[in-house]
Amino acid sequence: MQEVYYTSKYGSWLNLAEIELSAVARQCLNWHIPNPETLQRELTAWERHRNSQRCTID
C-alpha cells in the first residue's frame, strides 16, 4: 500500500526542517559541545530566542 503525504504549495515540511537544522548548526552549534547537558541548555536557549523573535522561514 502506498502512503500519500501532503506537501505544501511552497515547500515540504522536510525542506523547512532542513532549513531550521541548518540555522541551528550555524547559530548555536558552531563550537565544541562538551556534554549532552550543555547541548540541551544551548538548544533550549536558542529555541527560546528564535521563538521570542518570531523567526520565520521565507
Topology:
Blueprint: H1 13-27, H2 36-52
Overview of this protein structure:
The protein has 58 residues and is an all-alpha fold. The chain has one domain (1-58). 55% of the residues lie in helices and 0% in strands. It is built from two helices and no strands. The relative contact order is 0.11.
Work out the number of β strands. Answer: 0
| Low-confidence spans | none
- Percent of sequence in beta strands: under 5%
Number of helices: 2
Estimate the helix proportion, in percent. 55-70%
Largest sheet: none
Task: Please give the domain count.
Answer: 1
End-to-end CA span: 35 Å
The Rg value, from CA coordinates, equals: 15 Å
Oligomeric assembly: single chain
Q: What is the residue-averaged pLDDT?
A: 80
Briefly note the structural class of the backbone. Answer: mainly alpha
Task: Give the SSE order as H and E letters.
Answer: HH
Overall, the morphology is elongated
Can you give keywords for this protein?
58 residues; mainly alpha; 2 helices
Outline of this structure?
The chain has about 60 residues and is mainly α. It is built from two helices and no strands.
